[in-house]
């Protein structure tokens, strides 16, 4: 159980039309990619943005709630058992939905909130648009893939974390 105050704070968090989602939608329209559906019920997991004709599902994930692999955020210090279970459920639900979509021949694109910051926004959106257009040209038998858009190579992540730890110690 969580306190009444925590319950109200969690309830106030939006699940639709969040700022990161709105930024992605605006950039897609600017790139000439309109005609998408929002939170389409017919696709597993109700993707944030869905191109049914192209069979492309886009999930815009918040780093805290979906446990971003790039940010390595710590768990909250209080009520650790509750938060651990909640985050595990969120991650397993995300994996299940992506697996279902990929097995049905959809291209699943995941955009993390941290990849939409000023420094990496343009590169992330260029990659997202490229992946959407790439899915159009693929034959039906080659469809069904999962792409973490804007992800950094593992060695770059390791190097960045090492540098961050060095700065924190000073």
Question: What this model shows, in words?
Answer:
With 170 residues, the protein is an alpha/beta fold. The protein contains 6 helices and 5 strands. The chain has helices at residues 4-12, 19-30, 63-66, 80-103, 118-137, 154-169; strands spanning 37-38, 49-51, 56-61, 107-112, 145-149. The chain has a 5-stranded mixed β-sheet with strand order 1-2-3-4-5, with helices on both faces. Strand 4 (107-112), helix 5 and strand 5 form a beta-alpha-beta unit. The protein is globular. The N and C termini lie far apart (39 Å). The relative contact order is 0.14. The model has no long low-confidence stretch (mean pLDDT 85).
Q: Layout of SSEs?
A:
Blueprint: H1 4-12, H2 19-30, E1 37-38, E2 49-51, E3 56-61, H3 63-66, H4 80-103, E4 107-112, H5 118-137, E5 145-149, H6 154-169
Parallel strand pairs: 3-4, 4-5
Antiparallel strand pairs: 1-2, 2-3
Flag low-confidence runs: none
Protein structure class: alpha/beta
Succession of helices and strands: HHEEEHHEHEH
Q: Count the beta strands.
A: 5
Main beta sheet, described? 5 strands, mixed
Strand content: 5-15%
Multimer state: single chain
Number of helices: 6
* Separation, N- and C-terminal Cα atoms: 39 Å
* Fraction of residues in helix: 40-55%
Dominant shape: globular
Radius of gyration: 17 Å
Sheet with the most strands: spatial strand order: 1-2-3-4-5
Would you tell me the overall average pLDDT?
85
List its traits.
170 residues; 5 strands; 13% strand
Short description:
The protein has 170 residues and is of the alpha/beta class. The protein has six helices and five strands.
């Amino acid at each position: 159980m969580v306190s009444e105050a925590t319950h109200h704070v969690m309830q106030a968090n939006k699940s639709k039309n969040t700022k990161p989602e709105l930024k992605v939608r605006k950039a897609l329209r600017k790139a000439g990619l309109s005609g998408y559906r929002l939170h389409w019920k017919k696709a597993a997991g109700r993707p944030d943005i869905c191109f049914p004709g192209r069979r492309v599902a886009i999930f815009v994930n918040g780093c805290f709630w979906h446990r971003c692999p790039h940010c390595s955020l710590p768990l909250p210090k209080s009520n650790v058992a509750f938060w651990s279970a909640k985050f595990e459920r969120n991650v397993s639900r995300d994996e299940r939905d992506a697996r279902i979509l990929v097995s049905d021949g959809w291209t699943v694109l995941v955009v993390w909130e941290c990849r939409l910051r000023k420094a990496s926004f343009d590169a992330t959106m260029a990659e997202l648009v490229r992946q959407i257009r790439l899915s159009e040209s693929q034959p039906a038998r080659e469809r069904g893939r999962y792409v973490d858009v804007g992800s950094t190579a593992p060695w770059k992540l390791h190097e960045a974390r090492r540098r961050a730890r060095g700065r924190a110690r000073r």
